[in-house]
Design goal:
The chain is of the alpha/beta class. Helix content is 37%, strand content 16%. It is built from 15 helices and 17 strands. The structure holds zinc ion.
Amino acid sequence: MKFKLIYTISILFIIFGPKGFAGTKESKAVSRLDELNPAKVWVFILAGQSNMAGRGKLEAQDTITTSRILSLDKDGKIIQAKEPLNFYENKMQGTGCGLAFGKELLNYIPKDVSILILQTAVGGSSINQWIKNSKHREIQLFSNFKEKVDLGKRYGTIKAILWHQGESDAKPEGVQQRRGKLKILFGMFRNAVGNDSLPILMGELGSYSKTPELFSQMNEQTRLYSASDRFTSVIFTSDFQHRGDFLHFNSASQREMGKRFAREYNRVFGVKKPVVVLTFDDGSVTHYTNVAPLLKKYGFTATFFVCDYPRKPGIAAVKNITWEQIQALDSMGFEIGNHTGHHKGVGKLTESQLRDEIKYIEDKCKEYGIVKPVSFAYPGNRSDSLSRVVLKNMGYKFARVGGSRYFNPNNDKKFLIPSYTMTDKLDNKTIQALKELKSGQILVFTIHEVPDPDHENYTTSPELLEKYLKFMHDNHFEVIAMRDLETK
Ligand SMILES: [Zn+2]
C-alpha cells in the first residue's frame, strides 16, 4: 500500500510538475503519462552547440508527435516531443535531430519502452565553456546539464548522450587540444550520470565549411578520440547539406542525423550486434601467411574453405596452402570448411563423383586430426538441388553461394547462404555493405587470395583486408566463422 501511495504521488508530480497542480491544460497533451513507469523510460541527453540545438527550418513532419517519444516544454513539464526541442535560444530555435532520433529508435527497442529526450545544447558554446561551467546565452552549461541528468534519472534510465559540438573550436589550438578536452568533458558527463561506461555518440562537423581543412582535422581528432574510448561512437555527416549559411545543417540533414544516431546507438550499444562471417576460398598459402595473423590481431575468427586447388605449377604467383598449414589454422581455432577436393563445379559431377570430391577433404582432415567440416562452399558459387541433398546427407549444416546480399536466417536456406565478394575492385560495394549493416543482420564475405598478383579481378590486398577488419573492430561488429551461424 505504501509503495502504491508513493507511486501515485510521483505520478501526480510527473503530470503536474514541481510547481503544483495548476497545469492541467498541458497535462492533456501527454495522455500516456499516467502509465509512465520509470523502469520503462529510456533517457537520452542532447549536448553541444547549434547543430545539436537545431537550426533547420521547421517543417510539418517535425511537429508530428507520438506517445512514446517525450521531451520537456519550456516550463520543464514533460510533453510529447516535437521540434524544436530547444527552448533556450529565442528566435534561433529550429529543427534538430532529437525527434527523428526518437522515431528511428522506436524500431529497435521493446514495445513497452518510451523515450525521453532532454535538450541541453546551446548554440556557439565552446568545449572549454562546458568544462568550466560557463554561463553562455543565459545558460550555465554544465549545471544545466546536471539538472537534466537529475530529472532524467527521476523519470527513467539515462542510456546515452548525443554530442555535436566543435565548430566554435575549429582553430589550430582547438584541434590540438580536442582529444584531451573530450576526455575531460566526457569524464564529467559520466561522473554526473554515475555511469563510467555511459555511451556517448558524436556527430562529425559538416563538410561544407568555409574552413574545411580545420573541420576535417576536428573530425579526425574526434575519430581518434573515439578509438581510445570504447563507449563512444561517431556518425559520419559528410553528405549533409547546410541551410544556406555554410554552418548549420538543414532540416532534412538534421532528420538524417537523428536516424544515424539511432542506428549507431543500436548497432554499437543495442542488444544485438551486426554480424559478419568471413570466408576465404581456394586454399591459398596467403591465408596462412597474411590472413591468419591479421585475424588474430583483431581477435576475429573465420572459415577457410580449402581444396587442393589445381594451380599451374611454376606459373601461378600464389601457391597452395599445405595441409600442415591448414592443420595449424585449425589448431588456432579457425574453421576449416570444404570446397571440394579439386575445385570441381558440383553441377558437372555425378552423385558418386560429388561424394568422392567432398570425401577427399574429409579424409585429409581426418589424416591431419582436423575437425570434420560442417560448412561447404560451392566452387564458382554454383549450386544445384542434388548437391544440396548430398551435402545434407553427409552431415553438412551450411553451404555458401554468391549473390551480393545479406543472409537472413529467417528467409534464406542454410544450403544457399548468400555472400558478398570482397576484392580491391569491389571496394565501394564492400564499404557500403558494411556501413549499412544493422544490428541483428548478417553479412557473409567471400575472399580469395590475399593478394593474388595473377588475377586483378579477384585479388584482395592485405592492406584493404586490414582496413575492413579495423572498421568491423571499431564499429563493434561480431565477426564469426560460418559454423557459428548455428547460434544465430
Ligand atoms: Zn573457389
